[in-house]
Amino acid sequence: MSKRKFSYTYQESFEKKLYDFFVMIAGLWTFSVQFFKYIFIPPYEIYEIRKHMNELGIKTFPIVSVTGFIIGLVVAMQTQPVLARFGAESNLPGSVGISIVRELGPVITALIFAGRVSSGIGAELGSMRVTEQIDAMEVSAIDPFKFLVVTRIFACTFILPILTVYVIFISLFGAYVAVLLVQNMTFEFFLGSVLRSVEFGDAIPGILKTFVFGFIVGVVGSYKGYTTTNGTEGVGRASTTAVVVSSLLILIFDMILVKLTLWLWPTF
User: Fold this and answer.
1) What tens digit of pLDDT does each residue of 175-211 get?
2) Sign, CA torsion 34/39/42/46
3) What angle do CA 168, 106, 255 make, to 5 degrees?
4) 156: number of Cβ within 10 Å
């Protein structure tokens, strides 16, 4: 292949990927608008929402428990030598607590949640699409978007904040274990130091943004699965792409929300 032909091929590939990216963003926007239209239209599938919260959220507890404990342990182990240089080891609980509550807890939990849940939704709905189960629901006068998509997005949006609060506590316990290995500190003193350092303005914005992260995970996974094409190959591609896109959007929106929080809440 000549150098010029390779250049043209690379340019066409880049242009196609860029075009597909903007098509996907437009599709996600349309999908989100359609979701907000449907949430005001009865009947409300409460049973399905509760079932998905159990399947997508409760079953995620084991992996986020291990991840949260290790995060707290590692952050405390890494922070302790730095504070020891300045003779500020007594500030270790507060420093670790602020880091976990403000940023690490919400973001890491959202990324783990996206890795497990977004791919699962994409694969499940993708399989239903390629096997024509969604088409069969439409023929049976059942709205597949409301029954399959709205319920999953609702479940993701409201289960992620609960998981985040749980991970924060597990991470703090992991941090205490790390502190206990190098210092003779009681749990009461450790917890008191954390509570004195972490203020209301630290906890609330960090928890609130997880509603946005949960919505992103639900929308991306549902969109990639609901619009799957090309058979089983498309199902695998939808599952993989859902994880990548949702993780990327979580990081982008985290940056935006942090800046917005600092602007609206200067003391944060």
Assistant:
1) 999 888 877 778 888 888 888 888 877 788 888 999 9
2) positive
3) 150
4) 30
